[in-house]
Specification:
Two copies of one chain form a homodimer. Chain A has two domains: 172 residues, Tetracycline Repressor, domain 2 (Orthogonal Bundle), CATH 1.10.357; 26 residues, no CATH class. Chain A is elongated, with a radius of gyration of 22 Å. The first copy, chain A, is mainly α. Chain A has ten helices and no strands. Helix content of chain A is 65%, strand content 0%. The relative contact order of chain A is 0.10. The N and C termini of chain A lie far apart (53 Å). At the A-B interface, helix 7, helix 8, helix 9 and helix 10 of A face helix 7, helix 8, helix 9 and helix 10 of B. Chain A binds a DNA duplex (30 and 30 nucleotides) through helix 3.
Chain lengths: 225, 225
DNA sequence: AGTATGCCTGAGACTCAGTCTCAAATCAAG
DNA sequence: CTTGATTTGAGACTGAGTCTCAGGCATACT
């Protein structure tokens, strides 16, 4: 009945991933051979590779779960794009920091291992592709091809920054800001993704004293997409 | 007198990188051992690793040049951020496609080799960090931390999309669009990077009938950064 | 010329990640 | 208890990347 996920029972046997992260952090990533790592988490070298694929992937095992949950959420959400993305990223963060001790240990491991930071970029890109497909699907007609591309990249980058912030500051301080940031970001691309044309949209205008009609017209056009 | 860069003399000996890319494309990346690759470009295995560091890096050797030129350009440009970035990315594209034959061959190699696509993500991230630092430097006061992060990621993503487009379509068709796209992208983040604060700034506001004071205040705050 | 100095190359041994094969073990029924 | 399927472990094997050492090959010095 015990799942292999997070801290359910107080002193349940730690998951292999958590044990691996701790071992790698304490002994150094490059210095650790796969044999000793497999020993440390109580399985043979063969089984280690069968289960985790590689020494790098054992560190990022959580992302598989986070990614599949995000996909589910993007597929079924009927909220606005802005809200869907804000909730989706928040859910991802929740999954990745579910076991705070391991999460912080992994963060420290990444900080001291350039090789793993590079691997993280690759993992992260899977989120970007996921958001990109979602945004392309829900984009308003007339949205150019580069819209979803640009926004997906920006969303993931902001999310990563929030995750890094979380390592330093407390929990909610970091993620509360994330939602506001993402909302502000998506708002800049209204009406492609933000509020549907009309509806509950709020646009603010202030005309510089000397603005020419052309300036005004161009600014309005920008605001309307 | 002959440089080792691009197609200067008609039948000058091809650069080691170009030869390597051709060999890998024709024989398959995974199937090629470093020994045979080193043979193909006329050097020993030892020298190969000394010069290129790894089998992966020989494919992306051009990026070193592109990155240093971009850095130079970002450091010295006194144009607006929007123009600087548009010109910078265009220059990068120019460097990367300077030898069109090799560039297309590399593209084909990437298409058939997931491992190299992952490596490309890592290389690409160096551009992102470069743009991010630049944008943070030139950002208007009051720009939030996530501004440069989001925009840098978006710029690089759009640039990559343009490079992929170039592989399919003709030269200028792809890159002409790129400049327009980047300008439109940066415009969405005015006045953080676009127009300097004040000056020729025009902000447009339209209040939805039922907007609450909170809505208005928040929207105004967003517009002002 | 001859010689000394410093750099680049090649050869080969070595480590270790990741793959593959096969045999033992574990488990689920019947 | 037996049968059959899945999981595990042991060990051989491939190939990337590192390291050391010995031999060119140049330039500089006498």
């Amino acid at each position: 009945m015990t799942t292999s996920t997070a801290a359910s029972a107080p002193d349940a046997p730690a998951s292999p991933q958590a044990t691996a992260v701790r071992y790698l952090t304490e002994h150094g990533y490059e210095q650790t051979t796969t044999s000793s790592l497999a020993d440390a988490i109580g399985m043979s070298r063969s089984t280690f590779f069968r289960r985790f694929g590689s020494k790098e992937d054992v560190v990022f095992a959580d992302h598989d779960l986070a990614l599949s949950q995000l996909q589910e959420q993007l597929d079924t959400s009927d909220l606005t794009a802005s809200e869907t993305i804000a909730r989706g990223t928040l859910e991802v963060s929740r999954v990745l920091t579910r076991d705070p001790v391991t999460a912080r240990m992994r963060a420290q491991l990444l900080r001291s291992t350039p090789l793993l930071r590079e691997r993280e970029l690759v993992i992260t890109h899977r989120y970007e592709r996921m958001f990109q497909r979602y945004l392309a699907r829900v984009a308003a007609p007339g949205t150019p091809d580069w819209g979803p591309i640009a926004v997906a990249a920006a969303v993931v980058a902001v999310h990563n920054a929030a995750l890094r912030r979380w390592m330093k500051l407390g929990d909610d301080h970091a993620f509360g800001g994330l939602t506001r940031e993402l909302t502000a970001l998506l708002a800049k691309f209204a009406p492609w993704f933000g509020g549907e044309a009309g509806a509950s949209r709020v646009v603010v205008a202030a005309f510089e004293a000397g603005a020419s009609p052309d300036d005004v017209l161009r600014a309005i056009t920008d605001q309307l997409g």
